[in-house]
Design brief:
single chain, alpha/beta, Rossmann fold, six-stranded parallel beta sheet, two-stranded parallel ribbon, 11 helices, binds adenosine-5'-triphosphate, binds magnesium ion
Length: about 260
């Protein structure tokens, strides 16, 4: 029965291709199930969320993860070239992605303020829908996303909608970036308590140890661990060289990557 053989042969050929494609698809879906996107929040603005997210992006990319980045709302002076937000520029370079600006940074406010305050000053209301749809689209394009927050955990976006609400909608765990400067314990405990109140799972705390004064890493790690019961994922020293290889070296050495990916 020649026609059957033809079909059979054809299907064998297709099956071979399909098998490879299926294997790739299954491994991709499997990795996606295992790899959870993360929301990088911090105890305050300027605490180092962008630097830490960039270091994480370099490290996770170098160990073979197809990584995307997102900064839902950004504010400040717009860059003349490339992405308006400098944070988005830094993060895209670190992750080596070139996703459309309307997905990675759906809203940019040209003044340094929270989205809520920018709304009141500029009369541009923050829009949540494009942020959530951008997040969903990027989640389909990459195995894992690193989302950088704005300011701290209670930065207001709308009157009754804070960064906490955004994380809840994205349904992803948070990493809390904190600094070593005196006062950090208060800020970190408050941030953890708010996450707990909103039932946001916390992957862990990263101490960004870039201040010349401040607590010794050992005692800060001990106290934050005892006070919050949240894992301390590591402590990052002052970064002098933002090159790929330097960032990879620092982050691989000083962070518990296994725990971050667990
Ligand atoms: N580990 C570090 N080593 C050296 N400098 C650092 C480090 N972390 C932060 N900085 C410095 O602090 C500044 C603020 O850090 P960064 O932009 O990462 O903060 P942020 O939390 O992302 O702020 P924002 O709320 O504006 O997004 C950086 O421009 C850099 O000068
Ligand atoms: Mg930033």
């Amino acid at each position: 029965m020649p026609y059957k053989t033809g079909i059979f042969q054809g299907s064998i050929c297709n099956l071979d291709v399909l098998n490879n494609q299926t294997i790739r698809l299954i491994s991709h879906l499997f990795r996606r199930l295992l790899l959870k996107s993360l929301f990088v929040t911090g105890t305050d603005t300027d605490v180092g969320k962008t630097y830490i997210t960039a270091g994480l992006a370099v490290t996770l990319r170098k160990i073979g993860i197809d990584l995307g980045i997102m900064k839902p709302f950004a504010a400040g002076t717009a860059q003349k070239k490339g992405y308006k937000s400098e944070d988005v520029e830094i993060l895209s370079n670190a992750a080596q992605v070139n996703d459309p600006e309307d997905l990675v940074n759906p809203q940019f406010f040209p003044i340094p303020a929270s989205p809520y305050t920018a709304w009141k000053n500029l009369k541009t209301k923050p829009k949540i829908n494009p942020v959530i749809s951008g997040f969903k689209k990027l989640s389909k394009l990459h195995e894992m996303l690193l989302v950088e927050g704005m300011g701290g955990i209670m930065t207001p976006i709308l009157k009754d909608y804070f960064v906490t609400d955004l994380i809840k909608e994205m349904k992803i765990p948070a990493i809390i970036v904190t600094r070593a400067k005196i006062g950090t314990v208060n800020h970190t405990v408050m941030t953890v308590k708010m996450c707990e109140k909103y039932k946001i799972p916390i992957k862990g705390i990263i101490i960004n140890n870039f201040d010349s004064d401040g607590y010794k890493t050992k005692e800060l790690t001990r106290d934050l661990k005892n006070l919050t019961n949240v894992p301390i994922l590591g402590s990052i020293p002052f970064i002098e060289d933002m090159s790929d290889s330097a960032m990879y070296k620092i982050f691989k050495k000083n962070l518990n990557i296994k725990l971050i990916l667990k």
